[in-house]
Amino acid sequence: MVAVAALVDARKPGGLRYTDVDYDVLRDGAAAVLRGGSPFERATYRYSPFVSYLLLLDLRTSLPIAKLLFCVCDVLLGQSVGVLARERGASPSVAALWLWNPISIILCTRGSWDALTVWLVLLALRSKRAPVRAGLLLGLATHLRLYPVIYSVAFLGHFFFEKRRLAFGPSMKFGVTFAGGVLAPTLYAHRTYGMVYVEEALAYHLTRADHRHSFSVFWLPMYLAQAVQNNHLRRLLKLAPFLAHLALQASALLTLRRDLDACVFAQTLLFVAANKVCTAQYFCWWLPLLCVVAADGPRRIIRPARNWGVACGLWLGVAYALEFRGLAAHALLWGCSLLFFRANVDLLLAAVASPSSEKEAPRVLVTLSNGLAETESWTDDGDTDEFEDDGSDPGTATGWGVAL
Predict the structure, then answer these.
(1) Taking 80 as the threshold, does the pLDDT of residue 360 lie above it?
(2) String of b and e for 130-169 (b: at least 16 CB within 10 Å)?
(3) According to the model, what pLDDT value does residue 210 have?
(4) What average pLDDT does this structure show over 303-309?
(5) How far apart are CA 104 and CA 100, in angstroms?
(6) Which of 167, 187, 212 is the last residue of a domain?
(7) Which helix (H) or strand (E) holds 57?
(8) For the chain, how long is the longest CA-to-CA vector?
(9) Which tens digit of pLDDT belongs to each residue from 63-83?
(10) Distance between CA 202 and CA 204 in Å, rounded?
(11) CA proximity to 263, closest of 139, 78, 128
């Protein structure tokens, strides 16, 4: 697919390119670094500078080396899905659900590096008994993409209540190494590139508001707020998503605190579904975790997953009519956003539910025998007229015997 991308980009059939525009942004940032400058010289470069370093090989070799690295990360991500599924008592072959997923294949071959971040998160989940390694991995993932910071409380609680007892040592180790994993590369980037790094790679993502190309339920209120010069309304639109995140993340932590994998999955899906900006690229943040959590009972998510796909397709169809056909379908598209949010919630509830125990119906084995059978003390020995046991020979009886 990487080779196909090179051919499509060279010929541009219909004026279309296969490679994602964000990959071009990363490449331009790497070119600035190669000249001795800053990757933030490229407009819209809003990532860690370390990501641009990966594309220096592209410029030196004129080959899509970084794309191949992203594909390797995607394969390693699938391998981690299989390992975590096996730890939960499921078959590791569930990794095929990710490895052969066309969404993941297209994203990484187009130049998306999200698989790298999600792989680091899954490696941290595989380190449930190693707080130092888990802290370093989660800290590095948080530096690359800010959203993994929401997992820190769940991991801290996991190590603090290890084996149903208070464990200050493991939780302290995790906290220190997590802080180090975040601060070390962040301080290096700030020292090297200054405040432009803080403004573009950190502050921008905290204040970003985009009402276009977004599945978010907040896109229409933000769109309408642009036509209303009301500072109170704008503050409310900034506060509402934050409060929604706070409530949803707290509910996931309290409800699923004993299952770290399911808690991280729920936090990710809720974060994406309730975010101010929600694009299809963000789905790959929680899809691998869904494969892990639902591996022990995949049947329970078939119907919610089907409804999720239908809601997503419906949204895309209406969005096409609005964006490309110019139809005034704003209210209809917002209704599709609400329906899609509901589909996300249904999928979440089905995935984290305990798999239904399919109990086998009790079977009764009946054996009939004809002939003489020695009885116990329930029979009359023939000495008295009453049914009473006198301790003597129980006697014999003829007829049918039934054994259950």
Answers:
(1) no
(2) bbbbbbbbbbbbbbbbebbebbbebbbbbbbebeeeebee
(3) 66
(4) 95
(5) 8
(6) 212
(7) helix 56-61
(8) 115
(9) 999 999 999 999 999 999 999
(10) 6
(11) 128
CB-based contacts of 340, cutoff 8 Å, min separation 6: 215, 308, 311, 312, 314, 315
Domain boundary among 212, 233, 256: 212
Task: Report the distance separating Cα 245 and Cα 235, nearest Å.
Answer: 16
Distance CA 404, CA 394 (A): 23
For the entire predicted model, the pTM comes to 0.83
Going from the C-alpha of 289 to that of each of 74, 96, 254, 260, 300, the distances in angstroms are 13, 13, 19, 11, 16
> 3-state SS of the chain: helix, strand, coil percent to 5?
70, 5, 30
Name the CA radius of gyration of the chain, rounded.
Answer: 30
Owning domain of residue 126: 2-212
Which residue is listed with tokens 């008295």?
384
Q: Chain centroid to CA 331: how far?
A: 29
Name the band, by pLDDT with cuts 50, 70 and 90, for residue 378: very low
267 falls within a domain:
no
Confidence of residue 214 (pLDDT cuts 50, 70, 90): confident
Tell me if 152 is assigned to some domain. Answer: yes
> How many domains does the chain fold into?
2
Nearest to 274 by CA among 118, 293, 282: 282
């180790």: which residue's tokens? 173
**DSSP, residue by residue, 194-234:** THHHIIIIIIHHHH----SS---TTHHHHHHHTTS--HHHH
CA distance 45 to 42: 6
Q: What is the DSSP letter of 404?
A: -
Residue 360 CA to residue 338 CA, distance in Å, equals 40
What mean pLDDT do residues 107-132 have? 94
Q: Would you say residue 351 lies in a domain?
A: no
Taking the CA atoms of residue 301, residue 304, residue 307 and residue 312 in that order, the dihedral angle to the nearest 10 degrees is: -80
Query: At a CB cut-off of 8 Å and minimum separation 6, what does 285 contact?
Result: 114, 117, 118, 147, 268, 272
Helices (H), 88-230: 96-99, 102-110, 114-125, 131-144, 152-160, 168-193, 195-197, 204-207, 219-225
pLDDT digits (tens, 9 = 90+) for 177-186: 999 999 999 9
Q: Does 113 fall in a domain? A: yes
> Is residue 394 predicted with pLDDT exceeding 90?
no
Residue 111 CB coordination number (10 Å): 24
